[in-house]
Amino acid sequence: MKCARPKLKGWKEIPEGGTIVEPGSSIQFDVSAWRVSRPVIDQAKCTKCGLCWIYCPDSAIEFKDGKYEPNMLYCKGCGICQKACAPKAIIMFKEGKK
Amino acid sequence: MSTTRRSMSGNYAIAYAVKMADVDVIAAYPITPQTTIVEKLSEYVANGELDADYINVESEHSAMSACVGASLTGARVFTATSSQGLAFMHEVLFMASALRTPMVMANVNRALSAPLNIWNDHSDAMAERDSGWIQLWASSAQDALDLTIMAFKIGESERLPVMVNLDGFILSHTYEPIDLPNAEEVRKYIPSRPLTNRLSPKTAFSIGVVGPPEYYYEMKYQAVDAIEKSRSKIKDVYAEYEKIFGRGYRDVESYGIEDAEIALVTMGAMTGSARIVSEEMRAAGVKAGVISIRTFRPFPSEELLDLASGLKGIGIMDRATTPGGPSNPLFTDIASCLYGSSRVPLQGFVAGLGGRDITLDDFRMMFRETDRASKEGRGRSPIYVGLRE
Ligand code: SF4
Ligand code: SF4
Known about the structure:
The complex is a heterodimer. Chain A is of the alpha+beta class. In chain A, 10% of the residues lie in helices and 18% in strands. Chain A has helices at residues 51-55, 80-84; strands at 37-41, 61-64, 67-70, 90-94. Chain B has 2 domains: 3-245, Rossmann fold (3-Layer(aba) Sandwich); 252-384, Rossmann fold. The interface between A and B is medium-sized, with 12 and 20 residues.
């Protein structure tokens, strides 16, 4: 999945003292480089139970157009979603491999 | 401008200044020789002379942490400490500067253990010179009072913490005649803290967040930039204070420097003795002057370069040591600020550790050694004044 990497702020743009003045700013934080494996959902097997959405500790699973999909900007590849998925619709692939 | 003259110790002068500054929060833990500052303040709070929250804590680490928290709410904050207490605050000091939480702390200079010693030297403040705090140094109890008042003005406008240093016992417990400024005029001078970034339920924000490698560097640089920028504000505050209250301060104070050939650089209370001996040297035909560092952080490099340009020899007195270092703290700073611009010979001295008196004879020797360095065109390795073998 293609991710738009947010531009990193310069020292003049960061609020004084590193203060975070607006809530929800973690959305600007790209953690995709932390990941060594990525979840891939087999939509044919997915029952839309939403457990992966509930269990993902990074709220990386998004529900869009009737489908659950991990947002690869925020997925750290922990594999919890795979464990939570009863129909085994999620497979973890090593990053860098097809 | 009306003043009252009163006899006061350096510590009481600071407590009085803090009362006039009408602080909102004091969080402190007692430690010799600072204790009488916060003792006096707790008395002011208890008898209703000062409307402030006095937070009793179980350690200096908590005192500094409470001060950071209080400062974030927009309060005017004060604390005081010495030696081990300052060392115990160490990690929080860096947070106070990087989180841009203004506060004023009196640091009554005392030697660091071991051996346990409650007397004066500058090792406590020197160990915190990289913490991002502004450091002002008093050489009299009057300085301590004036600098404390100005420290609120400087720190709150630059949103940086300010440490006012005064020599333990020599200044903290010695009574001197002090001109007390009019309390109302002080209040007018520092009415209340300018509010920015105030933490309250209405203006919620997160502070003290993680700065990953992508951001730590930029955030740290903000603190570097802030103390650099404070230079001009400090100068303005010194000038404005002189206009209103009649006593002038400079980043670097100098005595008899105009036509001097050699000078001794001092910090704090020892400046007085150095001045006396410099006059004696002059009477004996040696053109000697004294340079005293008032603003130690940000370091007054330009001013020192200016002064050095007319000199043939500079003696630098450290009341602290840097074991294993290239030299001692003040010497290292001055040498690095002169590097590349001035070839004036420097002679380093270490004196007065752990409360050892620095006698007038010691000063005579230091002026003579500085004179020798100027004639030989180079200084020797640091001289440990009065050390027994
Ligand atoms: S691998 Fe972990 S982080 Fe990624 S979507 Fe699954 S649960 Fe979330
Ligand atoms: S847990 Fe599995 S089945 Fe349930 S929504 Fe997620 S991918 Fe689909």
